[in-house]
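[retry 2/3] DUF4087 domain-containing protein: previous attempt timed out, resubmitting with same input.
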Amino acid sequence: MPSSLTLSDRDGTWTIASIDQQADGFAHMPDTRKGDACGCLSVETDQATMHITKVLGGRLKPVSACRRDKNLKQ
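[retry 2/3] DUF4087 domain-containing protein: success.
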């Protein structure tokens, strides 16, 4: 696992996993392999800490779809 794994959306950047902790349900993460990826996740969050506390599921999308999404910061 990388030292950290994050998800950026219109609300900010969420931590999915760090060196010492990872979200419950991490096995439900799509395989992002390496580098940047685009996808949709169903998750539970702690908005106060911007942490994803549980991954319920997800799917990858073409990176171009995220680049076209005006709600996402590039």
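[retry 2/3] DUF4087 domain-containing protein: The chain has a mean pLDDT of 89.
[retry 2/3] clearing retry counter.
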